[in-house]
Amino acid sequence: MDQLDIGGRLRALRMARGLSQRVLAKRVGVPNSTISLIESGRANPSVGSLKRILDGLPIGMAEFFAFDPEAQRQVFFAAEELREIGRGKISFRQVGDGGAGRALQMLREVYQPGADTGKVPLTHAGEEVGIILSGRLEVTVDGQKKLLGPGDAYAFDSTLPHRFRNPGAQPCEVVSACTPPTF
Questions:
Q1: How far apart are CA 138 and CA 145, in angstroms?
Q2: Any residues with CB less than 8 A from the CB of 149 and at least 6 apart, and which?
């Protein structure tokens, strides 16, 4: 695919996320015809317009231009191939490349004792699910707080304010998934 095929890249990412042109257009506040014209190559968006449209997927500009819709996807991943995207006392090991062209993000999370996603709750588009493998994790969603242990799980709409905290003395390991990818 031509490196500058903005329309083809946009179409591939939109379809990978299961969005129609109409839904994406409504999400970002542009006419449906705008998305159609860009995808068909009959219009080139300004940088500002493209950023606005990409925010609706969501994907950053750098990731958009690095995305190759024709690249063969890796299917299997050794433990050392999981990409670290966390920092500090929280490890997020991502399966695959995450956002580009994917509708789902899968993580192996490890919260060290005292680790906390922050006093300000997180919010973003999508849904999250997770299963606690070991340790304990305090999950707060829209003001509801629950201490979860091995085998316990959570599932919620990510637009609700949420926070994760390990109040225990042992690391907590979680396997989680979210859609659309948020990192």
A1: 7
A2: 132, 135, 136
Contacts of 28 (CB under 8 A, 6+ apart): 52, 53, 55, 56
* Whole-model pTM over 0.70: no
Contacts of 87 (CB under 8 A, 6+ apart): none
H/E element holding 101? none
Candidates 111, 129, 106, 116; CA nearest to 172 is 111
How far, rounded to the nearest angstrom, does the alpha carbon of residue 11 sit from its chain's CA centroid? 18
Residues forming beta bridges with residue 61, ordered by sequence position: none
pLDDT digits (tens, 9 = 90+) for 54-81: 988 888 887 787 776 666 677 888 988 8
- Residue 24, C-beta contacts closer than 8 angstroms, at least 6 positions apart: 14, 35, 53, 56, 57
In what helix (H) or strand (E) does residue 32 lie, and over which residues does it extend?
helix 32-39
